[in-house]
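Tokens for chain A. Residues wanted.
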């Protein structure tokens, strides 16, 4: 997977969405969605994006491999 992971509010729950994929995973609370979203982003080495209740980006973290950090 090279597509970013987004955690977004939806109705009374939260969704974990992957860029370009129609399917989303629904969670009853924000904490659970954040845990799953971060886990997916880390495992796939992509960007993690948390959106607030207004839809705006609240937090963004990169789990991409940093080529500079991996040089000897």
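Reply:
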């Amino acid at each position: 997977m090279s597509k970013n992971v987004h955690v977004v509010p939806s109705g009374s729950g939260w969704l974990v969405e992957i860029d370009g994929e129609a399917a989303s995973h629904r969670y009853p609370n924000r904490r659970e969605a954040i845990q799953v979203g971060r886990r997916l982003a880390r495992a796939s080495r992509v960007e993690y994006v948390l959106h607030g209740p207004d839809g705006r980006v609240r937090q963004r973290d990169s789990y991409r491999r940093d080529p500079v950090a991996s040089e000897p």
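The chain has a mean pLDDT of 89. Residues 22 and 45 are 20 Å apart (CA to CA).
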